Amino acid sequence: MPLALAGCGVDEDDPDVEADGQLLILEWSGYEATEYPQFYAPFTEKYANNLDEVVEYSFFADDAEALAKMQSDIGADLVHPCNSWWQLYVDNGLVQPLDTSRLSNWDKIQNDLAAMGQFNGQQYFVPWEWGYESMLVRADLVEELPDAWLDLWDPQYAGHVAIWDSAETNYVLTALALGFDPWNATAEQEAQIEQKLIELKPNLLTYWSDYTEAYDLPASGDAWIVAGAWQDAYAYLESDGYEVVYVQPEEGRLGWVCGFGLSANSGDLDLAYEFLDAAIADESMAALANEYWYGPANTASLPLIDAYVVDFMDLDEVDTLTERTVLYRPLTEAQRIARTTLWDTVKASP
Amino acid sequence: MKRSISLGSTYFWLLAIFLYLPIFLLVLFSFNDAESLRFPLSGFTVRWYQALLEAGELLQAAGNSIIVGVWSSLLATILGTMAAIAVVRYEFPGKQLLLVVAALPLVIPSVVIGVALLILFRQLVDVELSLLTVGLGHVVINIPIVMLIVAARLAGFPTNLEEAAMDLGCTYWGALRRVTLPICLPALFAAFLTAFTTSVDEYAMSVFLVGTDATLPIYMYSQLRFPRKLPIIVALGSIILVLSIGVILFSEWLRRRDAVGEVSEPDV
Amino acid sequence: MEQNGRIAILLTPTVLFLIGLFLIPLLVMGLFSFREGSFGEAQTAFTLRHYAEFFANEAYLRLLGRSVVLSFGVSVLTVLFAFPVAYYLSFFAGDKKYVLLTIIIVPAWVSYLLRVLSWKVILGGSGALASFLSWLGLAQEGGTLLLFSPEAVVVTLLYVWVPFVALPIFAGLERIDKDLLEAAYDLGCNRLQTFWRVTLPLSLPGVLAGFLFVFIPTVGEYVTPALVGGPEGIMFGNIVRDQFLRALNWPMGALMSLAMLVVVLVPLFILSRFVRLSELAGL
Fold first, then answer.
1. Which of A310, B76, B91, C206 is deepest in the core (most CB within 10 A)?
2. What range defines the domain where residue A342 resides?
3. Do residues A188 and A233 both lie within one domain?
């Protein structure tokens, strides 16, 4: 039947499933349903016919950019920010509470992660993937491996440390190195954090700002330690034959969680819920974990994930994730501005 | 005399090497069998070019950039040329102010113009973000560039040409069309090309104005997240370089062909 | 009267376009520097808080100063590199001059990002230049040579800008009536004197235009410093970008942009006492 109609311009009684509606997803690049259909298997299989019409994307490269675009109401149905930004979406009324009973896979979401998406007693975000931030070290170039965030200041690495150009990350890791609570630092402690970061400068090679740099800097040997690097940078370097170590610092690795929020004025709730449910299906989450070495929020997907990914990420110990990892927490607008100001002052100082 | 010619041309070719060396490296890396841009080279491959053929999103982004580049540069060329004619040929109140305002987009960081236009489109009037909004932003920054280039050419030839044409029965607009524009054609072409180049490479402002369809720079910067895709982009860059050189050789050939017919032009 | 009609027709579209899509949004942006916050209610509250904060932050002011100095240095260097080429093309290259000029400009057509990445490869510790120098025995293996320093920013920007600056200088030189030079020779000037007393002064508008072409956008530059500058090569544009893109602190970002605008406009204003702005545009 579709064949017979293929020549017609309009085909009104197509027997295949075609969605009436359309989703606009505000997304990082690298998650496109058209390019990575396996990340949303049930959904992309069902709408395989006209997937590129059903799902449209608007991309962002930075969480702040995503929030600005949502504030300007670009008409997105779903948005995929990371958890330290979630509170701002809720406070500004940009997302709506979720009816989790419409998600058949919801019960498989790990509890601690689900709890992070709750605000004012309601579930606003579907946690999807998580990962670590730690020190990535070229073991063959250093005499001694660092084993704490404080070791970044060790003069033996002078000129060979690269840190991420991220106010949030550097604030937290410095607070940890100084023994402060990164989410309840006093004004005096903040001043010490600023001073400590300025003192790191002699050890610095550069600030890295994108993933390609996190890979290239240690690969070229210019950087010995890349701080704030994600585990998939490690995975790439390792598989390319470099002698690298992904450190488990004394103070704990940092950890991030990202997930989907449903826009307050989404036009097609049925389709949006269908997409969300497909994204957290076992096979979808496993595909994501295998592709990028990310932790899946749905723990039932574990049997489908490659053993070495499970092992490296400690996916089977996800229950203790919040204890052994310093997970980012939601920041208010004032906190975010204060941290950026601190970091910019550090960068601008001699 | 002879000595200074050789000194000058030596300097010219040294500078040309300085300018082409990094680009030559890019072409080299586009055939290198490794993901990162680094020495030593690992071997010859054409797999990045093969991957490019399948990189639908990348090619689409490149296509979007060309479309936006063409219409936004055309619009900028038209608006900029009209303003340049008025500015060069006439005195009017507020001329200096106009010049300053028209030059401002060159002076203001494009991030700022991007945010300002985002506020305009999304908070003051209700315009969906799309390639249209990106292109309008590009017109803003390209108007001063066009004005500069066209005005420089207009200033170089006397007003009485237009007057002469009008004495011969042309209307003012007819004189503009038959005399002024043909003489300015190389400048118009240069202005269009410069605007096009700027548009196709613009990133800082486009970030804020882009909707669901990405332009090439937007796509390229977003791909920095994936180290393994970098060589594909380098391959595309190499193709763009070769095409550019092709366009230049072609236009040079055109110019030479035409030059035969306009030997007497300076004496008009 | 008829003439006024012509001016109106020629100007109206451009003026309306610039007012609607440039001036109004820009004014709104400028007003942001007095606002409490970027979104919601904070948008409507007026404050001078950001001004106080900005002028109290010595590090910010220092970086602004450094960026102006660096931009100035880059601009001067670029003009020095570009002038001889423009001079050679205009006076000695004969009919080949347009082809040669185009040769200089083509590199600018390759993506800015890719060109900067290529410089990273050249300047890196295991990069092309380092390998070459160590092969010559001039540098030791493995040392990071130039990358991640203010010098790397200068070299990369110089590379990016030379073609753009050669163009206006060339255009300026082309406008010089060659008979004037003959006249100078006839009056007994030698080549150097002619250059110094005739060519150079006449080429000054083009040189200044080229200078400003580089100086103005370089103050706000952030891509090159972020990629090759390292901790010492960061520029003011990087923190302006952070305020807009990372902190979503639009009031502070707007204020920093205004500050940048002022430091750029001051030299422009001083220049305009000596050279009429319209002359720079070749009018």
1. B76
2. 131-253+330-348
3. yes
DSSP code, position C48: S
**Shared domain check, A97 and A238:** no
Backbone angles phi, psi at B109, to 5 degrees: -55, 135
Kindly list the residues from chain C whose CB atom is less than 8 angstroms away from the CB atom of residue A221. Answer: 125-126, 142
The verdict on A45 and A77 lying in the same domain is yes
H helices present in chain C, as ranges: 2-18, 24-32, 49-56, 58-92, 97-105, 112-123, 128-135, 150-174, 178-186, 191-194, 200-219, 223-224, 236-241, 250-274, 277-280
DSSP A294: P
CATH code of the domain in which A13 resides: 3.40.190.10
Residues A91 and A222 reside in one and the same domain: no
3-state secondary structure A54-90: HEEEEECCCHHHHHHHHHCCCCCCEECCEHHHHHHHH
Q: Looking at chain B, which subunits does it touch, using at least 3 CB pairs closer than 8 Å as the criterion?
A: A, C
Asked if C264 lies within 8 A of B107 by C-beta distance, the reply is yes
How many structural domains is chain A composed of? 2
- Exposure b/e, A157-169, CB count within 10 A at least 16 = b: bebbbbbbbbbbb
Per-position pLDDT tens, chain A of length 350: 344 433 343 444 444 455 567 899 999 888 989 889 999 999 999 999 889 889 998 888 889 889 988 987 888 999 999 999 999 999 999 999 999 999 999 999 999 999 999 999 999 999 999 999 999 999 999 999 999 999 999 999 999 999 999 999 999 999 999 999 999 999 999 999 999 999 999 999 999 988 888 998 998 888 999 999 999 899 889 988 999 999 999 999 999 999 999 999 898 999 999 999 999 999 999 999 999 899 999 999 999 999 999 999 999 888 888 889 999 999 998 899 999 999 999 999 98
Q: Can you read off the two tokens belonging to residue B33?
A: 């069998």
Peptide bond before residue C25 is cis, with ω within 30 degrees of 0: no
A317: three-class secondary structure by DSSP:
helix
Contacts of B51 in chain A (CB under 8 A): none
Identity of the amino acid at C10: L
Are residues A87 and A236 part of one domain?
A: no
Same domain? For A278 and A220 the reply is no
Q: Is C80 in the B-facing interface, judged by CB distances under 8 Å?
A: no
Extract the tokens encoding C158: 């110089």
Domains in chain B, start-ordered, CATH in brackets? Answer: 54-231 (1.10.3720.10)
Rounded to the nearest angstrom, the minimum Cα separation between B142 and chain A is 25
Q: Which domains does chain C have, with CATH numbers?
A: 58-280 (1.10.3720.10)
Do A46 and A70 fall into the same domain?
yes
Residue A343 sits in the same domain as residue A311 = no
Alpha carbons C48 and C36: distance in angstroms, whole number:
9
